[in-house]
Structure formats: structure tokens, C-alpha cells
Amino acid sequence: MSTQRKALTPDQAAALVPDGATVMIGGFLGVGSPRRVIDALVARGAKGLTVIGNDTGRPDLGIGKLVVAGCVARAIVSHIGTNPVTQQKMIAGEIEVELVPQGTLAERIRAGGAGLGGILTPTGVGTSVAEGKQVLTVDGRDYLLEKPLRADVALLHCFEADYYANLTYRLTAQNFNPLMAMAAKVVIAEPDEVVPIGVIPPDHVRTPGILVTHLVERPH
Amino acid sequence: MSTQRKALTPDQAAALVPDGATVMIGGFLGVGSPRRVIDALVARGAKGLTVIGNDTGRPDLGIGKLVVAGCVARAIVSHIGTNPVTQQKMIAGEIEVELVPQGTLAERIRAGGAGLGGILTPTGVGTSVAEGKQVLTVDGRDYLLEKPLRADVALLHCFEADYYANLTYRLTAQNFNPLMAMAAKVVIAEPDEVVPIGVIPPDHVRTPGILVTHLVERPH
Amino acid sequence: MDAKEIIARRVAQELRDRTLVNLGIGLPTLVARYVPDGMLVAFQSENGIIGFGARPPEGMEDPNLTDAGGGFISALPGAYAFDSATSFALIRGGHLEMTVLGGLQVDATGRLANWMVPGKMVAGMGGAMDLVAGARRVIVAMQHAARGEAKIVPELTLPPTSARPVSLVVTDLAVIEPTPKGLVLRERAPGVSVEEILAATTAPLTIPDTVPEMRL
Amino acid sequence: MDAKEIIARRVAQELRDRTLVNLGIGLPTLVARYVPDGMLVAFQSENGIIGFGARPPEGMEDPNLTDAGGGFISALPGAYAFDSATSFALIRGGHLEMTVLGGLQVDATGRLANWMVPGKMVAGMGGAMDLVAGARRVIVAMQHAARGEAKIVPELTLPPTSARPVSLVVTDLAVIEPTPKGLVLRERAPGVSVEEILAATTAPLTIPDTVPEMRL
Known about the structure:
The complex is a heterotetramer, with 2 copies of chain A (about 220 residues) and 2 copies of chain C (about 220 residues). By secondary structure, chain A is an alpha/beta fold. Chain A has helices spanning about 10-15, 35-45, 65-70, 85-90, 100-115, 175-180; strands spanning about 20-25, 50, 70-75, 95-100, 120, 135-140, 140-145, 150-160, 165-170, 185-195, 215. In chain A, strands 1, 2, 3, 4, 8, 9, 10 and 11 form an 8-stranded mixed sheet that branches. Chain A is globular. The two termini of chain A are about 25 Å apart. Chain C is of the alpha/beta class and about 220 residues long. Chains A, B: Keywords: Transferase.
């Protein structure tokens, strides 16, 4: 519960991500990604990260910047088509890529945060995604058993944060952020705006401060 | 998609619930339950319903009114302790009760609405809830495979609805309502307030109108 | 009318009033331009919005509001924004009436391949596998052939997107329906003969007695 | 100090700063009154709110804002309202530092029974099974014995709430900790002797060399 504690600079936040850590990063093609913390990770020269996110962005955008800077050893994502550097590094054996259908990725992260042992999805049955996975038949239909994902650190972007670190998200910048807020040991949120407690009504909070370990300062 | 169509009276809404139907009803001890539609169902003398909800309320509250009026043949709920009539009818063999842990009930309804074949939960392992269910071991821990729940009709309460039937909920009156909105063929929402399109910002809508089949008129 | 417009106009005829529809990136996006008059269709962008509109006026773009391709969009009154788990709950849960997707190949059983070319291009499936598994109707919108090579083939040589057959294939030459008995030619593009279609297709095609022209 | 106050005050000492805590209906609710000064605890009510407060002034009750027992509550600044799937994701996902629950029986292995008495009372488990399965620490707050009958027993005669042992049992007579080697007596209520506790307990109890009095 990030209550009334000092906000971190992006550099301080990046220092909380150890080399080799498994890191969830919110965003969809960089929209809803914590840009300032990503830049700080690149500046620090982070190494050997396993990154869980929707995609690897573009070479100059979102998770793509971490890929280009050589911070990423492994990526668990649904799409790499917009970042040719990821493809090159994958072919060169410099990055390991696990491709996960987008809806399955969302449910696996949600399951990790919700204490579920897994979920059964029809997505991927009869495709290469099914390789090595258990197929269960429920009421006559086949499903893949997909296991939960959790991380050491989640790096989120949000629209507003109050001093308790209650968070709101904005339009399509929401995407994976609220799911990841539930699924990591250390949760760091980078807000566009910081507001006093009580400014965000209880029905508009999307991630409660109790889940957020650290808040990054608002942009200057 | 309930778009600019005429709102129903509670009686018209109750007429859309056939005798013998499986009906999800939002609410927690009556808070967030569609009170006017429930009263209309009692007035109509509905029969043989399978009701899915958190609890059976009290004899004069929420789903409890349907139990007392003899509308319910079967209840899939997490709690009946606040309604002695449910217990009496259960012992007399007039009502069948399936007790489901509250978190499992929420996930089963969510799975039904999300197209999942089931979820694995640690809840209920080693208890009577596990009887007849498949136990799966994932990464060394035991989980119950719990199957999705769906219904013919969902009866919801909401705070605001706009003319598209985009819905918001209020404080603790939210509970099972947004989950049930995803998990039934016919979805009927009973609002406290009706507002023009655009009054509810996109980030505040909790159930999109595309899921709502019918809207009940606002209270007089 | 160019190839893309033919495809988009014909796919738009498959839209149904008051339903939720997802359009894939690229060609499928064009379908939104041809919604029949008076019809209300809710378009979902799987990155998190139902009810988006055109790119806003210059200087009014919002970095927190884009489509699944990363392009700036606007939101219509009554729009709904949501997270990725909700997005795919809508898709997987049968709440989506229709999805329109691009394709690399479709085979004789109606299976689609559209997410990778081994050894050449690995895009990733993004939301495509969920969309094909979950939407009530799956429409493939693609050029009939690519650089002289057939895309409607006897058997996929590329990894499938789903084991589930698609509902309809709309190309610049034809409308083809996968059925349990194989692919059936339903319509020809304006001025295109059955022979031209057969010549551009390597999968077996059933040809009914009459194959009408598309009405665009 | 009556029995309930002893229990509530002692349980409150288990609270930790800046954590999420769920209090069951009835006796456990009283714990909220004794939060140590300067400590910030976020209380969750599983029907859908974190950060609730006391009953509002007369005439200001909101029918859309109640606790899990159906009683009117208020919301504190910075509160968060949510649906039932989110509520139990918080509980099951390990985000809850502690839950305090009432009990009918606890056995020698630390297993709890608290949701039904076959043939007599079927309340239903409500959220109890999820709370015991999911909370990091599970505290049972109950009277040591009921109508002269022991509630801390060698083996449950009532259906268990979970196979998982609870973390601590706090009664009006004692604090007892379930361990892999069985139940250990940790503290005595003020003025209560070890002999009195043993007399009111049918489960085997390990008695350490010193059993301090609770400091309330």
C-alpha cells in the first residue's frame, strides 16, 4: 500500500528492476506503456530481462526500446510483427520469444493475479500453440489448459493516481495494466497526473493503492 | 444492443422470464438486486425457476421473495443462512440447493461469459465442495476444475443506464451484476437513473449496451 | 473500383444491425466505410474500445486513444473503454457477431492461416486465434492470389490460426463459402468469369448451377 | 472486559500496517475498533469495497452501500468499489494479508469448520472457503467453548471449510497456534490458568514452559 510515501524518479524506479528479473510491462504498441521508466531502464543498461507484455512495440516505441537496447533475454508476447529488430534477434538466437494468443495472455496474467491454477480456453486448439499442453474435454468441447503467469515486477502506466496510489486508466491505454497490477510482487505505476485522496470516486478507481508498491512522480 | 428502444415496465420484463428458466439475479443480500422485476415475477406467479445468485436474501428481501412465493425450484448460491424459509423448503424437499463458494461462483459466471471451459481454483479442495469434481495438479498444487455457468436470462440492477443501455453500478451494489451481464442469452437491466448517450464517459461504463437485451424503465 | 474496395464493399453486406463487430488491421478496416445506411454496428477494437470513430482533427489526437494498429482514433458518444481481459471475454464469450480478418491462406476445409511464414515472417497471432475461435462468424477478407501464387489451396502449407473453419472468404474475384463438403463458389466479382476464378484457385471448388455477380 | 472484547483486542494486535484485511461477519467485525494508533489498515468487505467506515448519520444511509452482513456503512476517502470476481481475485490471489473468521470447530491439525451443522443449520460457505484458501494469514476469532461443549477438538465432527490449517486461533481464554506438530498454547487470557484452558479443550495441546498472559 503506497500511502503518502515519496514518489520515485524514473531512475529510482528502474533501479528496483534487477537484471534477470521477470517483468510485466503494460501497453499495446506503446500506448499505455510506462515510457519514462522504460527509458530509465535503457539508460541503466538493464540486462537479461524476461518481459511479459502484449507486443514488442516498434524499435523506437514501448517494449521495442528495451529489445533494441539489448535488455531483453526472453519475451512472452502476442505479437512481434511491428518490430523487425525482435525478429532479427530471435533468428540470431539473441532473444527467446514465446508467442501467446492475446486473449490467452490476458487470462494467464489474470489467473496469476487471481490465484487460479489455470484456465481452459478453446483458443489455440489444433494449432502450434497447443504443443506440450494438456487438452481437457468439458461438456464435449476441447480446451487447452493454460497456466497462470506471475512476475517479479510489474511496470504500469496509468492516467491518474491519488496519494494512496489508487489508479485510473484512460481509454485504450488501459489494456494489460490493471491485470498486471494483480500479478507481480513489486508493482510500480507511472502516472500522467497525481491527485489528492478523494478526487477519484470509489466507483472510478480501477486499481486500488493496496496493490501498488511504488508510484513514480508525475511528469515535469 | 438495446439502442433507443422503448424501456419495459417491470411486468413486461417479468413476462420475458419463462417458467422453468435458468435465471441469474444480481445482488448481495438484496443490495444490487432488481427489486421491481423481482416483485413483478412474484406478482406473475413464476414457477420452477433455477436461480443463480449470491444468496437467497431474507424472506422479504431480494431473491428471498421468490423463494417465499414458491417461484424457485433450484438455487445455485453461496449462502442461505439469512433466509430460514430456504432452509425449511430445502429440508422439505421443495427446493434443491447447490452451495458454491462465493469466489468460485463469481469465477464460474465469469467463465460462462468469457467463453472459458472452466477455471482451476484451490478453493474447496479437501471439502465436500470437491465431491464429483476433477482435481488437477499444477506445479505441485491441487486445484478443483470448476465449470462455467450460463443462464437463459440475467436480471440486473444498475445505477445509471444511457439510451444505448450502457450501464454503471454504484458502490457495493455492483457485486455479481457485471459478471451476469456477460453470461446469459437475454439480459434485462433495471436502472435507478436513465441518462442521455454521452453522459457516461467511456471509462466509466461498466457494462456496454451491446450486452443488454432490454432496459426496464426508471422508477416513477 | 479497385480490389480492396470490391472486397470491403462486399464484406460490408455481411454486417447485421445492432451487433458487435471486430475488424482486423489493414484491409478489413476499410469495411467500416461501407456500413449500410441506417444500420447501427458497434465496432470493437481489441486493444480496448467499442464505438470508435475516425482520426480526430489535427492537434486533437490523444496518445491514450488508438486502434489496434496504433493509429489515432476518436470515440463516438456512448463508447465503452475496457481492459484486455474484458476485450477477449467479449470475443471468446460469443458476444462478437462477426470478425473480419486478413489471410495468407485458406484451405479446402476452410481453415485459415494468417500469423506466420516459417523461416520468413513471424508476426505472431496477436488476437487472431481468439477471434477465429470465438466470433460467431469469421469472414476472411483478402486478395484472391498474391504475386501469382494461389492463396486458396488444397491444404495449408502455413501454420493454421485455428482448427475451426471460417464462415466466408471474400476476395477481389469471388465469394467462397466453406461447407462440410468443401469450398463452394457463391459469387463472382463484377466482370470476372468462373474460369478466371478457377484458374486462380488451387483448392477444389464446387461450382453451383448459377454463380451470380456481387451486387456492390 | 467481556469475552468478545478480549478476543477483538487480541486479534487487533495481529494487524500489520499498510495491509489489506478482511473481517468476517459478527465477532470479527469488532476487531476494526481496536486498530493500533498510527496504523493504516485497509479493510475489505467482500461484497465489494475496500476502505469502508462506520454507519453514516441517520438519514444518510445509501441502499447501494452495505457491508457483507447487509448493514449500512460509509466509505472513507480513497475507497475502492469493485465486483465479486475482483473481490475474490484479491482474496484468492494472495493480496489479502489477513482474514479474521468466526469458527464452529478447530481440530488438532488446525483445520476450521464454520459453515454448516448437518441436519441442523446449513448457512452455506459464503466467502469463507475462498478466504481460508487465499488469505496469507487466517485468524479464527471465537469463544473457546459453546454451551459447555469444546470447540477445539481432536478431529472435526463438522464439515471442514478448507483442508488448509488456519494460522492462529484467538478465544476468550487463549491464543493457540496450529503447527505441523499440533496445537501449541501461546497465551492465556488475563486471569485464566493453563488448567482452565486444558479443561475447556478436548484437542491435545502442547504447553510450552512459559505461557504469558495476553497484553491487552
